């Protein structure tokens, strides 16, 4: 292990032979002789230096044990075009073109103009649900309008109660069952495939139910009195928890993607964050009570790429989008949009946020880059405030509805063919509850 074998390819054999035969000693003697005869001078010293370099007098190695390091190898060869003298330019990422016109416009006559209600939702089975006064319509949004007749339109009506008003709709994660809130404090759960009512949830509220949010088998409902109720739809005594923090109508409810935190916004300008992992104190059962908004808080959107990031929007007297760290309740940023914020949606594939607005003649949808909050697009087809928005299952298309009696589909979040697939919803069925319920 201690032997060193010379590298013959790097050895100077001529120089080695010369030095072994006394060449270095001869040169030194000649130079010293000149010095003894008084021939030392600057020019002579320069001559001596050059002679030493020529004969490598400072060189002490004869054998070489290592070659020079090789030239670096091009690991990724560059592509060449034509004769090979030109390098191809790196391709730039394709810039996404955001259409300024909707892909489709559907009529929605009788859509109630009420900021406190939630009347539009898009299920995981790609069916839109929209409430028009006392009716709930189900529709495949891509069905050509000119191929529909009156019979088809009648079959898309899921439920009608003439003397009642629909105040909220929300699809269950399985895309088959749908919850419907009414102004008489009842909540119904329907099977959309069989077009059959499965149960009615009573006793949790004493006023109209304007907000709904699913968390697996838990249906959370919010009423006009400020109460938030968790209902386990699998059991007869469905009320499992009640949150009391709002003093006026609950305008918005959204569970976080993890299902651990619930955000509730109210007409009392309050935003509450509730955590289902901690035991609740009846006096202060919320995790955070946030009072920075100066108007009703209806627009709520949990960030898909950061679990503790929540975006909220304020009403006509506030006009701001705020971002919150829900772990500590800190307000991270505030943007004044100049108009009432009605709804918010995150892009699942890019760091973007879509907001819908009303009032101050700005009835529009606005697309923002996050976190810079630079506005990249404005969509202005609606002629009244854009109260409701819903996102398609693949996350690319957005449906917007307004009291101008139109429902518009926008390809605002990208091409479905290149976008990342949306996560599949976990099917949840409730057969035992449906068979045993008699309410």
TrEMBL record:
The keyword Cell cycle applies. CDD domains: WD40. One of its GO terms (biological process) is protein ubiquitination. It comes from the Eukaryota. Residues 106-410 form the CDC20/Fizzy WD40 domain. Signal peptide: none annotated. One of its GO terms (cellular component) is anaphase-promoting complex. Keywords: Cell cycle, Cell division, Mitosis, Repeat, WD repeat. Residues 76-100 are annotated as: Disordered. Residues 86-99 have a biased composition (Basic residues). It holds the Pfam family WD40_CDC20-Fz. WD repeats lie at residues 159-200, 243-275, 379-412. GO terms for molecular function: anaphase-promoting complex binding; ubiquitin ligase activator activity. PANTHER family: CELL DIVISION CYCLE 20 CDC20 FIZZY -RELATED, FI02843P. Component of the anaphase promoting complex/cyclosome (APC/C), a cell cycle-regulated E3 ubiquitin-protein ligase complex that controls progression through mitosis and the G1 phase of the cell cycle. Belongs to the WD repeat CDC20/Fizzy family. This is CDC20/Fizzy WD40 domain-containing protein.
């Amino acid at each position: 292990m201690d032997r060193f074998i010379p590298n013959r390819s790097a050895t100077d054999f001529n120089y080695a032979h010369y030095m072994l035969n006394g060449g270095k000693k001869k040169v030194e003697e000649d130079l010293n002789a000149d010095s003894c005869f008084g021939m030392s001078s600057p020019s002579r010293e320069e001559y001596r230096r050059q002679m030493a370099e020529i004969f490598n007098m400072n060189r002490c190695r004869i054998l070489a044990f290592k070659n020079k390091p090789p030239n670096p190898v091009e690991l990724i060869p560059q592509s060449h075009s034509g004769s090979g003298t030109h390098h191809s330019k790196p391709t730039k990422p394709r810039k996404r073109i955001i259409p300024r016109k909707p892909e489709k416009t559907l009529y929605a006559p009788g859509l109630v103009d009420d900021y406190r209600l939630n009347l539009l939702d898009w299920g995981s089975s790609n069916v839109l649900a929209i409430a028009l006064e006392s009716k709930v319509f189900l529709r495949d949004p891509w069905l050509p309008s000119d191929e529909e007749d009156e019979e088809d339109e009648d079959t898309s009506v899921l439920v009608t109660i003439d003397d009642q008003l629909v105040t909220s709709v929300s699809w269950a994660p399985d895309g088959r069952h749908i919850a419907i809130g009414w102004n008489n404090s009842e909540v119904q759960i329907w099977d959309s495939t069989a077009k059959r009512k499965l149960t009615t949830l009573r006793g949790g509220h004493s006023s109209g139910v304007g907000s709904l949010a699913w968390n697996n088998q838990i249906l959370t409902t919010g009423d006009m009195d400020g109460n938030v109720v968790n209902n386990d739809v699998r059991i007869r005594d469905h009320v499992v928890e009640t949150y009391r923090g709002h003093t006026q109508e609950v305008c918005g409810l959204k569970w976080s993607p993890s299902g651990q935190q619930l955000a509730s916004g109210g007409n009392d300008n309050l935003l509450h964050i509730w955590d289902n992992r901690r035991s609740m104190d009846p006096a202060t059962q919320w995790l955070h009570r946030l009072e920075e908004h100066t108007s009703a808080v209806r627009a709520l959107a949990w960030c898909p790429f950061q679990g503790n990031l929540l975006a909220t929007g304020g009403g006509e007297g506030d006009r701001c989008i705020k971002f919150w760290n829900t772990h500590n309740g800190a307000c991270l940023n505030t943007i004044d949009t100049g108009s009432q914020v009605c709804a918010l949606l995150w892009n699942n594939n890019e760091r973007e946020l879509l907001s819908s607005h009303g009032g101050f003649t700005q009835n529009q949808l606005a697309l923002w880059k996050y976190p810079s909050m630079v506005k990249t697009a404005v969509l202005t087809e609606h002629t009244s405030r854009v109260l409701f928005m819903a996102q398609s299952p693949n996350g690319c298309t957005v449906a917007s509805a307004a009291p101008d009696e139109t429902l518009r589909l926008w390809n605002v979040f990208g091409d479905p063919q290149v976008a990342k697939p949306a996560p599949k919803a976990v099917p949840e069925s409730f057969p035992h509850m449906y068979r045993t319920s008699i309410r």
